[in-house]
Structures are given as structure tokens and as C-alpha cells.
Amino acid sequence: MRKKAVMAVIGSWLAALLLVGSTVQLSEMRASRDVDPRLQSPVGISEIYNPNDKAIYLTVKLSDAPPGTQVRIAAYYLQGNKPLEVAVQEFPNIYGTGYLSLKITPPQAGWLIGRYKAVFQLNRQESGSIGFIVAADKADRVYRTFTSLGHGFSVQYPAGWVEGERGTGSVACMFLANPDNTPVSSLNVQVIPITDGDDSQAQEAVNLVAQQLIDQIKGFPNSRIHGDMWTMVGAISGRELDSEYVYQGAKIQQRQFLTYRANNVFVLILTADQSVYASVADHYFNAVKTLKFLAK
Fold this sequence. Notes:
By secondary structure, the chain is mostly beta strands. It has two domains: 7-134, Immunoglobulins (Immunoglobulin-like, Sandwich), CATH 2.60.40.10; 143-293, 3-Layer(aba) Sandwich (Protein Transport Mog1p, Chain A), CATH 3.40.1000. It is 10% helix and 53% strand. The chain contains two helices and 18 strands. The strands form three sheets. Strands 1, 2, 3, 4, 5, 6, 7 and 8 form an eight-stranded mixed beta sheet that branches. A hairpin with a 6-residue loop joins strand 2 and strand 3 (42-45).
């Protein structure tokens, strides 16, 4: 694919601060379906796009930038070992505080299906990156509901997946894309009891378990935490981790959503080989969206 022409717009600055001693930074790196026409802030944030989407926007917030600040946004299609650059925009001399946006449109033949990566540079140094996916249009997704009366929750999983071996006592349910789990594609929910916990310590409990998971991930070769943030899904608040690592020679992509309920931290986990991650990632987002706690 040849590099596509893109439109990048510097929005109306929230403040043009010429502070010699200010600390310039990039934050709020997002992919979205649209942007606010005045601020250029993201609208319709998502990590999953379909072939019918007419545009994908990459946005980032620049803060306290002195004159002469340089920002670069580049998007890559991840194929094999050599990422393919599909869009790039440079902002060579900007200042102040506000959003920058990059609009990517599909080539004439349509979007390349698979995983993409956006890299954000500040003054020629990488400041951060995010991933997003263009997935094949599969309107026929069918899900079943798993309910655990003992742990008091329900969640949806793909109807074609099979129940796997739970392994440890903390795993409340485990579902696999195929009985051999080759390549790796699994969705599970773990329930971690919190001793002497109460609702006032919910965030502290989630952070404790999240740190344990991060430490485990960092123990694997080539590990990297791509994302770590608090988010709201419906009425449920939780912390989400996005990571990758190598396990037994396979490149693994993992998503985890952690939330607290009744002296337990619930961890919903999608683990997938990177070669198939794009085709199963939407199952994770559906599971997070459909996670419900039963009334007592």
C-alpha cells in the first residue's frame, strides 16, 4: 500500500501558553471514529473498526508546549516482522495546549484487515503508542451466557468456543476457540478474594491485583505494557491492561479488565496469539460490555 494522503488539523488551542519553564508533554493518545470540529478532541473512541468505516482518527493532547515544539504522528499496518507505514503527519513548529488529530482514510481497494499501531513522537522522541484493529465484518456473531451463581456474575462468550480446563481455583470460567487452544485464543474470568476488604477500598484492591499481574507479565521475555488506564463500562468502573509477551516461543497479546465487587476482584482476560488477535479481540470487548453482577 502506498502512503495515503491524510488530513491533520490543529484544533483551536485551549490556551496558548508561552511558558519558558513549562513541561511539555503528550497525553490522551486515542483512536476514534470522529473528532470535535472545534477542539479536535476524539469522538467515538474505539479500538475495533470495520471495513465500512470511512475514516479513523488518531488524536493526542499536547500540553504546555513552548514555541518550536515538534510532534509527529505515524500509523503502521502490522504485517509480519516489518510494519508498513500507512499514514504520517508532522507538526514542525507548534506551541500551547490543545489536541492534534490525524485523519486516515482507506485506500481505493479498502482497509487492510488486521492490526495497526500508532506512534506519537515529541521532539523526535517516542512519547507513546496505541494499537487498533480493522476487523473483518462479522455480523453473524453469536454469543452464549455463562452464569456463576457461586461468584454472582454472568458474562457472554462466543457460542462456537469450548469450555477449557480452569487450572486454578481462582478461575471461575475458561473458554477456548478450539479444544487444542492452538493457536492460543482463550477468554476467562478469575475471581481474586480480598481479605478484610470493603467497598471503600475497591480501587486499592484493584490496583493491588493489577500490580501483581503486571509483575507476572514483566517476568516473560519481550514483555511490554501497551496500555494501563481506569475506564467506565456502563455502570462498572475498572482498570484495563493491554500487554504483550512471548510464551513458549509464541507472541502473545493479552487484555485484562479488573473490577471490584463484594470483597473480590474480578479479572476478565483475553489471551491470544498475535496472529489471530485481530479476529478475536471483539469477543473481549463484548465480554466486558456484558459482564453483570447478580443481585443478592
